[in-house]
Amino acid sequence: MASAMSMKASPVHPSKITTVKALVESTSSSSIPSFYNFTPYLRDEPIASDAEDSVPIIDITLLVSGTPEEQSQIIHQLSKACSDWGCFMVINHDVTESLTKAMIASFQEFFDLPEEEKKEYQGNHVMDPIRCGTGFNPSMDKANYWRDFLKCFAHPEFHTPNKPARFSEIAREFSKRNREVVIILLKAISKSLGLEESYVAKAANFELGLQLLAANYYPTCPEPEKAIGIPAHYDHGLLTTLVNNGVSGLQVKHNEKWFNVNIPANVLFVQVADHLEILSNGKYKSIAHRALVNNKATRMSIALAHGPSLDTVMRPALELVDNESNQPAYVEMTYREFLELQQTGRLRSKFQSDIEQSRAV
Ligand SMILES: O=C(O)CCC(=O)C(=O)O
Ligand SMILES: [Fe+2]
User: Fold this and answer.
1) Model ipTM?
2) CA angle centred on 176, ends 347 and 193, rounded to 5°
3) pLDDT band per the 50, 70, 90 thresholds, residue 10
4) Under 8 Å CB-to-CB from 33, ≥6 apart: which residues?
């Protein structure tokens, strides 16, 4: 019965729809068009019960103004968080709750713009400085994602759409404050790897680092168990900071199980991304995560990818490699090359096979 429902044709012709939001608003269908059906991939691995374990919490004030003892304790906690989980919650940071709320409201206003106005920002290439799009792609025969997005380069150059009003101003402040948190974290992470505190920032030429501000919009979905917002993936920068609108849906993979992550309003959720994995020669691994959808409330998340500068060659820190048990596990390439390979679907397998190789020795 359920599968028959999923096969029911959508009353809306796909070519008329440019976003998942528009699809949802144009129909009251209780089923999703079949090309959103992600079922074969979705329920493949176990989901942890909420009580099983919990994401580590890092109090950033202790990194900034703690006693030397408190600092070394928190650096130790950070090291464990990065190596055991690949993610953590940052509390007591300067990205205020009101700023986050204003940023979420501004992105909501953007997604509420008429489809025609949003089309102006449609882009296809990873290097387009402003790019909005959707999981919806009628020309693809594989499953699509239940998600619309807007991505803007926020650093070293700042680009945002010129509407809605105040979007740009709020996005600038939000990106800047997130970046400040990341600068503090990268210093502590360098120390936790036994490196000098400016090591990661210098190696990644972080002063010119690419910062990508991305909002994900997941409308309510009549068949949430069949669709996916974003399938399992790893982020490409050094660290990602993430907030959401109080609706949960994010899951991270820890010890071969998927954990639900509920992000409180005043918390920044931080994920280890691929370039920290490369720099640390696999000591800290990027975390697999995915976004589920639901049938009760629209979910929005805002992710900031904080990466190296585009033209810096990234490789494992020389201090962390040797010719014996710590051989470099990743090939050298610029962040730009990495992103371009990733976009054309050629990178992850290569990156992954490098990891597999390093695990095999
Ligand atoms: O919506 C989320 O919580 C996850 C978003 C995400 O993984 C991404 O934008 O890369
Ligand atoms: Fe992600």
Assistant:
1) 0.99
2) 55
3) very low
4) 9, 10, 14, 23
